[in-house]
Amino acid sequence: MVTQEEYNAVNSDLTDAKNDLKDIQKQISNEKEAVKESEPPTVEENKEDSATDHEKENSDNATSTETFIEGSASESITVTFNITPGMSSEAISKLLEEKGIIPDASEFNQYVIDTGNVNNLQIGEYEVKSGESYDTIMGKLTKSE
Questions:
Q1: Where is the composition biased (Polar residues) (predicted)?
Q2: Which residue in 51, 108, 117, 139 could disulfide with 93, CB within 3.0 to 4.6 Å?
């Protein structure tokens, strides 16, 4: 049998533990929010903005062939990746999207096709920065830059 005093002590410990747990959960929540606010936008978040910017850019300057990716130079990241034998332009475009270099693989792949560079893509290791124009990226991938 448990005495009233023992019961009260256990109950008090349990209440303290619940309060500690609430404090820890609140602290974790605050830390997650702080980290989320400091992270750059994801590729998905940039897709909508980039599409709108791309449409505006095309309407402002219909003769331009350069397509710029959302973000300023200070926000750009440099990514190193490899193009291996047998990779299609579609696979390369998907890789660039996965690495956060381009916002839309289908759009970039269509650009590769439209510029006639499907057969000009070269195997090798590349270093590309987010925010570079499609022309600049293409110059690197065809080693014509």
A1: 1-14, 60-71
A2: 108
Query: Where residue 96 sits, what CATH number does that domain have?
Result: 3.30.1490.480
The tens digit of pLDDT for each residue in 59-113 reads 333 333 334 444 444 567 889 999 999 999 999 999 999 988 899 999 999 999 9
- Number of separate domains in the chain: 1
In a domain, 111, yes or no: yes
Residue 92 included in any domain: yes
DSSP string, the chain: ---HHHHHHHHHHHHHHHHHHHHHHHHHHHHHHHHHHHSPPPHHHHHHHHHHHHHHHHHH-TT----PPSS-GGG--EEEEEE-TT--HHHHHHHHHHTTS-S-HHHHHHHHHHTT-TTT---EEEEEETT--HHHHHHHHTT--
pLDDT of residue 16: 86
pLDDT in tens, 25-39: 888 878 777 776 665
